[in-house]
Amino acid sequence: MSKLIVTPASSPNEEGSLLQVTPESAGWQYVGFEIVQLAAGETLKRETADQEVCLVLLSGKADVSTKEEQWLGIGQRMSVFEQIPPYSVYVTSHDNYEVTALTSLELAVCSAPGAGNHRSRLIAPAQVGVETRGYGNIERYIHNILPESEPADSLLVVEVFTPNGHWSSYPPHKHDRDALPDESFLEETYYFRVQPEQGFAIQRVYTDDRSLDETLIVKNGEAVLVPRGYHPVSAPPGYDVYYLNVMAGPTRIWKFHNDPDHAWIMTKPSES
């Protein structure tokens, strides 16, 4: 199996952790990502230390608190494929958080270096930017959970719904050079859910010189590391694909570069 694919454990550990990416395990510097599954009544409690954290309630309901705030009974969707924006909580560095599941809960814990510049806060569904990108069979649906227009030190968090038979992260683009204003350097994780669950997604990760060139078959519940290169995704016919992206780098801005061979695809055909 490719080293870019991170597979979940067969069952959660004592904290509920099912899948984990750390800078050490990924061999990079900025992005951390974890999936935690809690049964109703179970609690996850942690310190953020020098990291800022975005807790995304992928499915289920919970009470969430930090040192100074609490939000009771948040969460509304029971599946990501309901395709409604999630509840999330941004937790600043040198804070703590406690999550108590009120139902079965799937929680994404997204982390990156923090500087304590922003207060911990709730990100309610109404605050999530919803947009459609692309056209035809490259059309997909976006929930901007923590975009660069919203306060954070490092984290960028977005979820994408790719209908079956469609492509996303397309045309292929990359963000692996610290060369602003043209391109920013951002590490990235993709966390996949597939419906029906026996399906799969396809993701290619490749560089211009092909020193990295992998085509990945990604199953439901797996994550993909994108340390560099272009990284398009395909949803095969019959299988809708969801993924949660976490990005972070030295500068909190998303400036990408399309593969020149395929950039023409963004020119929408004129309608007769």
SSE pattern: EEHEEEEEEEEEEEEEEEEEEEEEEE
Helix content: under 10%
Strand element count: 25
Cα end-to-end separation: 47 Å
Annotation field: number of helices: 1
Give the overall pLDDT as a whole number.
96
Shape: globular
From the helix content, strand content and strand pairing, which structural class follows?
A: mainly beta
Pfam families: KduI (PF04962)
InterPro entries: Deoxy-glucuronate_isom_IolB, KduI/IolB_isomerase, RmlC-like_jellyroll, RmlC_Cupin_sf
EC number: 5.3.1.30
GO molecular function, one term: 5-deoxy-D-glucuronate isomerase activity
Question: Can you describe what's shown?
Answer:
- With 272 residues, this protein is mostly beta strands.
- It is built from one helix and 25 strands.
- The chain has one helix at residues 23-26, and strands at residues 5-6, 17-21, 32-38, 43-47, 51-59, 62-66, 70-74, 88-91, 96-101, 105-113, 121-123, 129-133, 140-146, 156-162, 167-168, 173-174, 176-179, 183-185, 187-195, 200-206, 213-219, 223-226, 233-234, 240-248, 257-258.
- A seven-stranded antiparallel β-sheet has the order 1-22-19-24-14-13-12, with no helix packed on it. Strands 2-3-10-5-8-11 form a six-stranded antiparallel β-sheet.
- It is globular, with a radius of gyration of 18 Å.
- The termini are far apart.
Tag the structure with descriptive keywords.
7-stranded antiparallel β-sheet, mainly beta, 272 residues, 48% strand, 6-stranded antiparallel β-sheet
SSE diagram, text form:
Elements: E1 5-6, E2 17-21, H1 23-26, E3 32-38, E4 43-47, E5 51-59, E6 62-66, E7 70-74, E8 88-91, E9 96-101, E10 105-113, E11 121-123, E12 129-133, E13 140-146, E14 156-162, E15 167-168, E16 173-174, E17 176-179, E18 183-185, E19 187-195, E20 200-206, E21 213-219, E22 223-226, E23 233-234, E24 240-248, E25 257-258
Antiparallel strand pairs: 1-22, 2-3, 3-10, 4-9, 5-8, 5-10, 6-7, 6-9, 8-11, 12-13, 13-14, 14-24, 15-23, 16-25, 17-18, 19-22, 19-24, 20-21, 20-23
